[in-house]
Amino acid sequence: MTNLALELDLDPFDGWTPHPKQIEVMECDARNVVMNCGRRGGKTNVGARKFFDKVLSDIEADKGLPYKPPRNLKVMKKPKPRLEYWCVSPTYSMSEIQQEELGAVIPEEMIESWDLSKNRVWLKGYILIQFKSADNPKTLVGKGLDGVWLDEASKMKEQTWSGYLSYALADKGGWSVWTTTPEGMNWFYHDIVLNGQHTQAGGQLDEYRNDPEWRNFYWTSKDNPLPELQKNIQRMIETMPKRYVDREIFARFDVFFGQVYEEFDRSIHVVPRALCEQKFKDGHFVHIEAGKDWGFTNPGVTLVGAMTANGELWIVDAIYKAQMEILVPGSSDCWVAQDKELMKKWKIKLFWCDSENASNIKTYLTNGLPARAAQKHLKEGIRAVSILFKVKSDNGRPNIFISDHLKEVIQELTNYRYPEGTTGDSAEVPLKENDHAMDSLRYLVWNSKVFRQFLISRFKVIPWKIPEKDS
Fold first, then answer.
1. Theoretical Cys-Cys bridge with 381: which of 37, 272, 372, 442, CB 3.0 to 4.6 Å?
2. H/E stretch holding 442
3. For the whole model, what pTM was predicted?
4. pLDDT at 62
């Protein structure tokens, strides 16, 4: 490695057409730059450039000099760099996006080596960039960092910053770049965003600390003018429930309060039992599966979901009962017997079951019931179910209907709620009440591969899947 004092003549805008919000970021000289943006708004794209621009500023200011290079770099496992920077993502798989974006920004002639196996880049002049995962914050023990870039920071644990990275930067007075879409009013909002200036992303004006070393930037997915992107954004707006649009498209913190399935409307989503049975007889349902939540003291639930080829899910029947054993040989008053009758009546192909009771699933399989453990994925599953309730603009219909005889299911849909007065991740975890049929519904929607294929045939994509990569 050579050229401790590099001669640099680089234009961060060369070959790049930023939108106005991205230009504002590049022109900012604050020590800590925080970007809270909607999905696909171009935050990671400008984040990489801002990170590299700050690295260039350190180099041009001769930061880290004088520096004594190691005598034999090849035999040293961990040579001490002149300048060291970290790029941190919630997981190593997500850090690939950071690496890809930086790879498009850093000139090849500046790169001494790029070691994918060790997730690090050496720039000429003994400058080290390391890619780190925040999955286990205890591994983020660093001494004297010159700068960090935290991508999707709101998904990280609080200790990532407060317990480790803030101290590593303090040693050298290092800087930080933040790029994220909000995950509610969690630690990122309280400990990072409130340091800077008030934006339209939410919160009260008097909460903000207006520290001159921190600068907040806020923009929505609509601010990225790429025509093809805007088509996709409009589809998301039309498909996704309002609270998900507010958070992921319009990047607001202050969402997720009250009723979980606030889109549920009895006048729209509840249909006559006779209509469900007639559609079944007429062959309108092309595939039927069930969601299964075990219970004894609390009610256990089997929820029958009949699917149409155009991606509609009709909840046509259910068993909702407490104090019932899984198997009682010779008795009809047990789950195995009653679910067998349900399977025979509706031609159920598969039961997606609560995975916590593996022995129950084995009992079902042993007794001829096609059962499989469901992936739970609480928040993701709730989002998937929520999207089905929204009335779609292309045909004026939702993608879910519930038979009017399922009183307990309808009651849970009305009463399933988020806790009051909570913030951050806990604000998106519903109360553990009125949730037995809701768990069954989530298991079915989130896990059914057949239902996903029906949705793809209609929407060309899975409606709740939003690409992570920015442009």
1. 442
2. helix 436-447
3. 0.66
4. 92
